[in-house]
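Methods — Computational structure assignment.
A single polypeptide chain was analysed. Its primary sequence is given first, followed by the predicted tertiary structure written as structure tokens.
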Amino acid sequence: MFIHDHMTPSPITVTPEQTVAEAIDILLQHNIRHLPVVDEQGVLKGILSDRDLRSARPSTVARSKERGTVEELVNNTRISVLMSRDILSLSPANTLDDALLQFESRKIGALPVVNEEGKLVGVFTVADLMNAYRDLFGLGAKGSSLISIEDNGDPQALSKLVHIMEEKQVQFTRLVRAEGTDKRKAMIYLRINTYNVRSVYKAIEAEGFTIHVPHTSI
């Protein structure tokens, strides 16, 4: 669950002295949305996003002459003028959960990954996070099913479920206990990998658990 195992290493970068026009060409050429900005030693100085570039471009309602003049000015502007300097970052030893909280706090799509010296070693995106959780929990794998179990408050509930899976020799990739809210009951979520889901249901119910099936109303 460490960032080091899921980040994009040695990402494409730019320097503060390069121009906006160069940055646009790089983004288009490589079909990416974020460019870390580093100095000659590879130390992270900022990040430039396609959103930063769009904000700097002239309005589409501007007159053609004015638009051309502003576009030329923007294209020749150094990246250091537009890049974001107040940036969050991750270390290779941070976890996927750390990244999730940072993405949520700023509503951003990518985080640079730096080492102890502040040098850029990778980039971690929301897409990387989704792929990492998918792999971690076996989402999309053949025979993968998520079982919702009503939490009866038994402090030994999780260990009992583990024992059931071991007895049935069923592989599982997730066992989570979620507290109840005013909108949902306290639940236990179990992701299993087997084609014989019905037999797992029966074994769980035989131990006194209730399989939760959501009821929808139109």
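Note: The radius of gyration is 24 Å.
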